[in-house]
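Appendix B. One record, verbatim.
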Amino acid sequence: MRSLAVIASALSLIAVATPSIAAPCRDAKGKFVKCPEAAAPKATRCKAANGRFAKCGTPGAKPIK
């Protein structure tokens, strides 16, 4: 009896989770809308040995975190 309850609850979780995959491209009424664009990746900044900002790729420049 318990195993049937566990299986039923697991199947209900799978059924509920499936529609959420398409949720970002739908509005509250379920209509398709334009998906929001992903944010552009941040540019890597580098510092030279003297502590000033420098172009990445110049000798002695290291990326900062």
